[in-house]
Amino acid sequence: MITAGIDVGAKTIKVVLLDGGKILAKTSVLAGFETEQSVEEAYKEALAKAGIERSAVGKVGATGAGRKAVAFAQTVVTEVSADAQGAVFLHPSARTVIDVGAEEGRGIKTNADGKVVDFAVNEKCAAGAGAFTESMARALEVTLAQFGDISLKSNKSIPMNAQCTVFAESEVVSLIHSNTSKEDIARAVHDAIASRISAMVRRVGLEQDVILVGGVAYNIGFLDSIKRTLGIENVVVPQDPEYVGALGAAVVAGAAGN
Amino acid sequence: MATLTKYPTEPLKCWNKAKELRLKYYKDYAECKQRGGIRWSGGAWAMDAIPAGLGDDVYTLTSEPYAASVAFDPKLNAECQSAADAKGWSRDLCSYMRTYWGSMYVNKYAFGGEFPKPDFAFQTQICCSHHKWYQHVAEYKQIPYFTIDVSVGLYKDVDEGRIAYVVNQMQESIPWLEKVTGRKFDDEKFIAAVNNECRTTSLWAEVCTLNKAVPAPLEEKTMYALYVLATLSKHSKEFGDFYEELRDEVKDRIARGIAAVSTERCRLITDTQPPWSYLSMYRYMEKYGAVSVGSLYTFALEGVFADQPDGSWGPRPTPEQLGIKIRTREEALRIYADWNLSKPEWQHFYDPQIKTDIMLRMVKEFKLNGVILHLNRGCEGLSKGIMENRLGLVKAGVPVMTYEGNMGDEKEMDYPRTLSRIDSFMESLGFNKLEN
Ligand code: SF4
Question: What class of enzyme is it (chain B) (predicted)?
Fold first, then answer.
């Protein structure tokens, strides 16, 4: 049976079409203001990419903060469950899932079936999330991709307040004024986020394999920092990490009874 | 698909009476001066049976429940919090204390009119905020103030020396009360008040224990309107009588299989004060058939518990139930000190492990599926060690959800995110929404 997973995030809507163990198509569109319309657009695009009709999809699953916008979904799950399912689907030995999205960072402990055993999510402050990296990159006047790259060039550890985006930004400004290099500042920012995320991971209990999903997984500076703060060599980054939630929603839809 | 059991449910008959008693309490406090009465203010843990020895026309305003009442009025609450900010008080102080002070600064009483000035303040000290709270009230309002330090350690370690430390302070408070009010202390009234307090707090513990029944006859949101009476005036005979009526009604509900929530299938407890402006989260949980059957906070803030002969957790037998007749002031003070020092909610001030152990006991005896912990930024006293509690529960295999908030300052809560966290928690426990 072909199933669809739709992840309605704060910034983008992602769709994955799944046929048993095979991914048929992935699409992503900006969420915009008319979420239902954007969902429709993303879904149609995915169907076209896979070359199938709407009627060929047996089940639709939705996830993400705006999951209610998928009126035609038969199953609806939270991002936490979808992440765990998607991660275990891609990497069956994954037991810890780290998801750093635009507004939320999560540490999830899963079992071999992709069932959530425990989870921790950052509180209302965005400092543990991707939006924080973006705002810090802006403060340094570099692109997000450059921000990751340059931090690898630093080998200095500068402690930074990771509790609050506003305080951290003012700290970055102080560092700029004290002529700290962009490389060192970028690493300090990644270390600070990684330290918050790894606290969440430790709260639920670190168990290997660890898989990093969500858009921030593309950031090689953050990847380096999270490995260091967790004290592990291997953190798995799947292909297209930002689609793991949508994939999980498709898996859940497929597993749901008729 | 498994069929869902639907239990019969019906409203609590004595619900309106609880609300009336509460409103009368606040009104009496505001109006008692017109009738020549005395009013004093102190914490919900103040030894209120002692000022009861001054006469039947002595009225209290307990500050924590008062601040919780203010929290129900978002406009007034914001005004009070801002007034506390304007005085330079830090945001991380006890939010109840900030609200109470704010209400005093803006001179507005949550139940109408001006903030009624107490004749004196009478307080106990176990949380670091307690004494300072009323030191400031006393200075600001220019009123006399007495504090009794009750932080003598775990009840299991309490010996005669520690009891004497508390009793001696209570003894000293009596001539002080006589001096500041110009009234003669009546030992008989005091002895009656001690007996009433033991009865009220034991009865409340009994009501809570009854919630071990499946389905639960009460759920926590309702219990907030019931437990509050003991926080207002523990020694009140009227409130003791109400709890007796409530106990009988709850027993009757159990006998007839009446549930608080008809779709109960997941039993939880919470912890510490809830975010008062967002009690609708309890109704949200019910969409999953999840019922919070109580919390250490709701049960044991005032409820006095003890091990029962069968080893379970239940109400501590009162001196009267044990056939002890209190004859003198000294006997009454000793019993009163001992009774209060055994309060479960006082124990974890010394060691978070105690709280974890009580919660684990609750998980077992109340047949729970999980625990929700409120990382309450507004109360350092009861939130102390809460992540240790989480760890202890998780290690014992109990699913735990945490969320951050503040009992008295709604600005510190992200409600939609908390609901989404409840969704994730419910999913991880294997429950789907029954309705939307
Ligand atoms: S225990 Fe909590 S509510 Fe009570 S005084 Fe201390 S901080 Fe305030």
Answer: oxidoreductase
**B431 interaction partners in chain A (CB closer than 8 Å):** none
- Taking CA–CA distances from A103, the nearest residue in chain B reads B417
> What is the Cα–Cα distance from A52 to A204, expressed in whole angstroms?
41
Is B381 near ligand 1, meaning CB less than 6 Å away?
A: yes
Q: Does B428 touch chain A (CB under 8 A)?
A: yes
Contact check, Cβ <8 Å, B427/A124: no
User: Rounded to an integer, what distance in angstroms lies between the CA atom of residue A103 and that of residue A133?
Assistant: 11
Please indicate if any CB of chain A lies within 8 Å of the CB of B278: no
Mean pLDDT across chain B: 96
Q: What count of Cα atoms within 13 Å lies in the side-chain half-sphere of residue B244?
A: 11
Which residue type is seen at B106? V
Would you call A118 and B399 a contact, using CB atoms and an 8 Å cutoff?
yes
Residue B130 CB less than 6 A away from ligand 1: yes
Q: B129 CB less than 6 Å from ligand 1?
A: yes
Ligand 1 centre from B94 Cα, in Å? 6
> What is the distance in A from the centroid of ligand 1 to the CA of B93?
9
Show the low-confidence residues of chain B (pLDDT under 50). Answer: 1
| pLDDT score recorded for residue A126 | 57
Q: What is the pTM of this model?
A: 0.87
Rounded-to-integer distance, Cα B290 and Cα B279, Å: 14
Nearest CA to ligand 1 atom 6: B381
Q: What is the pLDDT of residues B355-376, one digit of tens each?
A: 999 999 999 999 999 999 999 9
Q: Supply the pLDDT for residue B1.
A: 45
Q: Which residues pair with A22 in a beta bridge?
A: A19
Q: Report the distance separating Cα B291 and Cα B422, nearest Å.
A: 12
pLDDT (tens place) for every residue of chain A, 258 residues total: 999 999 998 889 999 999 988 999 999 999 888 899 999 999 999 999 999 999 999 999 999 989 989 999 999 999 999 999 999 999 999 999 999 877 778 999 999 999 999 999 887 665 556 777 888 888 888 998 899 999 999 988 888 765 666 677 778 888 888 889 999 999 998 998 888 888 889 989 999 999 999 988 999 999 999 999 999 999 999 999 999 999 999 999 999 865
pLDDT of residue A87: 97
ipTM: 0.74
What number of C-beta contacts closer than 8 Å exist between A and B? 41
* Best residue in A78, A122, A252 for a mutation probing chain B (most B CBs within 10 Å): A78
Determine the distance in angstroms separating the CA of B384 from the nearest CA of chain A, rounded to an integer: 17
B423 touches chain A (CB under 8 A): yes
Q: Which atom of ligand 1 is nearest to the CA of B381?
A: 1
Contacts (Cβ under 8 Å, ≥6 apart) of B20: none
The finding on whether B96 has its CB within 6 A of some atom of ligand 1 is yes
pLDDT score, position A195: 86
Rounded distance between C-alpha atoms, residue B307 and residue B313, angstroms? 5
Residues in chain B, overall count: 436
Per-residue pLDDT, A168: 72
Contact with chain A for residue B92, Cβ under 8 A: no
**Per-residue pLDDT, A172:** 82
3 state SS of B402: strand
Q: What DSSP character marks residue B9?
A: B
Ligand 1 center from residue B95 Cα (angstroms): 8
